[in-house]
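User: Structure tokens for both sequences below?

Assistant:
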Amino acid sequence: MNHPTDPTNPAPDESAWEVAMSRDFDARVRDLHEAPLDITSVKGKAHKIKRNRRAAVAGGVLGVAAIVTPIAVLANSTDDAGGRSPEFVEQTTDTAAPPANPDYLQGTTWHQADGDTVELDHEYQQAVQWGDRLVGTRSGPEVYLVTEVLDEDGNVIESMNTTSPVAINDTGTTIAWVEDNGQVMTAWDGGETAIGSVELAAPGETIAWTAAAISGGPDCNEDADGCVVYLNSNLDEDARAVSSDGINDIAADGAKRVFDSTSDGAVSVVTEVDDFGDTCGGIYETQTSAFRFETCDYQVQQFSPNGDFFIGTQSQFDGAGPSRIALVDAADGQTEVNSFERDGWIVGDWTWSPDGAVIFTAYEGGRWHLMAMTVDGDTTELAEPVRGDDFATGFRPIRH
């Protein structure tokens, strides 16, 4: 099997936790309908998986890349969920120029930040920007997914079978994934190494372990920079951290899912999912083995490039996807600096751009929009809306 050396079924009972987990993983690998995205589903239910959008527990999964979407319960931004949900203010969209051009996919077209477009041979459901390369993930012929490394002209350099899209560190230098043989792999410019392994045996077509986040690098060899890869389970096990110095342990106290991590040891996690699908979590500091804060008001998802803010979604939302997202101060987990919410709209994919804006997709009335939201309070539309189904987004932001 080739690797990127040049960088660069279900259980008999379906608990609320299992449903939430399945939605989380579905969100990270949205529309990979031939892959086992859902622990309560098999290939024969692929069309249903496509409609199970980002879950409140997963990304992104209770978040897995990407990610979560509980389908068993309905929620909205005005439901106080027992006093958990904050007051949200509907934002209007500014028509000013966006802070910068983002990298994104539209069908098989790769829109690059410099304005160039590149036509690709395949449509990728998730992608990260790794140096001047694109690492895209698409559905495969079997249970696992196909992840390909492409050069700036769209040529495939390497290809591998993975359990999920790759994770990328906060400096964009190092990627991580779980191979179809259970090896936990990392790669950087000029090097690649396995830092551990997991057991992938699972009932039916369940994906046992997926790569959720990576910190450290760029060189993940034991005697170099060191790396920690965070793994999410779809077998009702706690999230784990596998490091290049041989440690394989729980990711954080009580962590059911990991969303993201930073180079200074902060990890965004979900720690609780109740019978109604509400979630709680927070930011865990691995250096002190303590939580910076815990909250049930948000799912704490991706960190901003400087680590000062995070993308927060409702702690619970229905199977169509979240109706809002907010940019929240990562120091206290409470102070919102911007948010997006519109009546009848749902939010699809989201990620941070290198200059600190959130690029996200939103759906309304048969149209998909590509949006940018900054910590300065601006919200702008980046491209002409495109027609599409509510489960097949017309745009896919590329993560850096």
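Moving on to the next sequence.
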Amino acid sequence: MAVQQHFITVGGLRLHYLERGQGEPLLLLHGYPQNHRCWRHQIEALARRHRVVAPDWFGWGQSERSSNHQADYYTEVERLRQLTQTLGLDHFNLAGHDYGGFLALGFAQRYPRNLKRLAIINSRAHRSFTPAFYRLTAFQCYCARRALLALLFTYGPLYHLHRRTLRNYVPGCFNEAELEDYIGWLRHRSGRRWWTSFFRHYEVAPRRELEEGLANLRLPTAVIWGDADRFCDTTIARDLAARIPNAELTILPGVGHFAVEEAPDAVLRALEQWLARPKTGQPYHDI
């Protein structure tokens, strides 16, 4: 089965994406700081029955990094809408991990009629991060919004800081080459400038409007979570499953934040079960 990699322009920004297979469309959104490669273990199997599209989100991977574009939440959700329109995805399945799950939830609440199903994997979703990571992210946002501190970030050791943090996930989630693919762009000043621009617009606080909209979601929803996540606690997962009427919760015991790569077979099984679901809820279970 051929893997097709493409570039398209959406809203004036160049975006890279992988496409494979035919059938009911499935859009896969990666998290921070990854790109479409985080789905490498699942794409081949999912593409046997679906048209799978896995983009590098704007700013990540091979997609354009422009410090001139806004990255506030609803602008990003609207970019997702523009992307799906450009790709001709009118009624599709949407799965997102981490930042991708954050955007997917906002999209589902704004454009529920465009979705067949929704899956959220280890994401801040409607809430936010664990206390330690919340403070770190809030500090990054604070610095990015102040010119002198932002300049220091542009010239600072962002690549090495990311590598030091993520090195703990080698080889459990990704290898050295994959880690370099995820963060190598931070070696360059243009990449660090874009990183600063991204966090200038990012809001770390919980989003009350997303929480209030959970009860209105009526599409089959999968909430898939590694319960050893140091960034996004399982309380988020259980709250999503409790509040979304047609949600199924799958807990992955002992699995961390990068569940898609750390427990690829378990995530694949959960996604396949989700894609096979009828329009009724399913019970909670562990894998």
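User: Anything stand out in the second?

Assistant: The longest strand covers residues 13-20.
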